[in-house]
Amino acid sequence: MKKLYMIGGAMGVGKTTVCKLLMQKLDNCVFLDGDWCWNSAPFRVTEETKAMVTDNICHMLNNFLHCSAYDNVIFCWVMDHQYIIDSIINNLDAKNHTVKNISLIADPKTLRERLSRDVTAGLRSADIIERSIARLELYQSLDTVKIDTSGKTPDTVADEIFRL
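RESULT FIELD:
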């Protein structure tokens, strides 16, 4: 049976890094980062662009789920509201796979330190820090397995997900 790992979390919590490591631990695996489906300049959030990115994500995930070459599909994106998770799952073909919904979380201090390093390195703009910290509480109400990444290496977090 195929497994779909849906991994959400605030910006800077470690989703992409953990998913790349998880990919190395799983057999016959493919990885999609939701940000790749909405990489535009300028970045515009409208009803039209939100519908487009969800369609892009579902199309790609369905293709991966239908492909016999893959047993494991990893998807990560911010997914800070239940309706986002539900809208993706409801648009996927439900046969022959199980879904593991996971939210990566971190304490505000840890998240601030990680994002500050990215800002200093020129990888992110400074406004990301407060926006990301403000989203942390949204993950508590989601129907997901919560994994706290504070004080853990990305490899340790990937191992935790692998064991689910």
